Structure formats: structure tokens, C-alpha cells
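The instructor's notes for this session suggest beginning with a concrete chain rather than abstract definitions. Hand out the sequence below and ask the class to guess, before any prediction is shown, which regions might be ordered.
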Amino acid sequence: MIFMQYKKILVIAFSFLLTQAFSQKPWYQGNLRGINDLAFELNIEGIKDDVWKKRVMSYVKLMLLDQDIQILDALIPKMVLDINIIDSRVEEISSFFVQLCIYGYSISEEEYYKSLSNSKITKNFMTTKLFSYEVVGQTDSEKLYKDIEKNINSSLNSFLNQWYNDNPKKQF
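After discussion, reveal the predicted structure:
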């Protein structure tokens, strides 16, 4: 009887460890490998503040340049930072949405194998999302810009952490 209880516990523990060993990696893991330069686009909706927009643009570019990621005018790979703001001066709470995405080219598996068999380079590239990080938040109207900037910083840090995981030699 006691042996059966230990056996159940042992089977559960073993299956838990086995599940962890064969679990799926994050979908974006490895997608940023080999990216050394990016195009950058900043989209801000909900407010018209050109000075703040230029400040955010400069901050992002400086943060990337500090990590030796060059900003180019190329189309792809592209970093897109979308910021949507509902600034309610009437209400106490304002809302915001910050999304950082990296887009790149890819082809379907079927097209890839067709191009190998035909010895032709395919022209059927698709634009795909290589990395994405989203934050939705609410804050006081007085602290709106500061809280959005904190979330932009956390989004960029998340991207850079994944970028260093995918490009470990860039740390040195």
C-alpha cells in the first residue's frame, strides 16, 4: 500500500521532469540571430507632442547604438515601436499601449523546398514578426509620459536581452 503511494508520486515527478525537458521553447527564441542592424519606425497615436516624440526617437536610437546595433534606412529587418495613448485630462486615469515589434523576411517551408529542388531563388518572401513585446497600462495624467518611458525602457531591455541570448558573441 505504501509502495503504491510512492510509486504514484515517483511517476508524477518523473512525468513532470520529462514534460519540462521536452517543453517548447519560446516562439521567438533564435529569431534575432544574425541581426546587426535595423530600420526603425516610431508611431505615436493619441497625442501631438513633437518634442516628446523626438526625445523618444533619440532615446531608442542611442540605446541601440550603445549596443552596436546600427540604424539603417533599409526596409527589413525593422523595429517598430507603436505607442497608443488615451490621455484623459478630465478623468484621473489615462491609458496607454506600448508595442515593440521586430519584423523580418521569411518564406514558407514549402517554398523553401521548391526553391532547393528548382535551383531558383524564390521571390515569395513574407514579412513576419520575429519578436514582439506589449505593455498595456493605466496611470495618472501627470505621470503619463514618465510611465510610458519606463515601459519603453522595459520593452527595449526585453528585446536586448533576447538579442544577446541569440547573439552571445556580441557581449564581448
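Then share the key points. The beta strands are 37-45, 70-71, 78-86, 93-106, 126-140. Residues 144-166 form the longest helix (23 residues).
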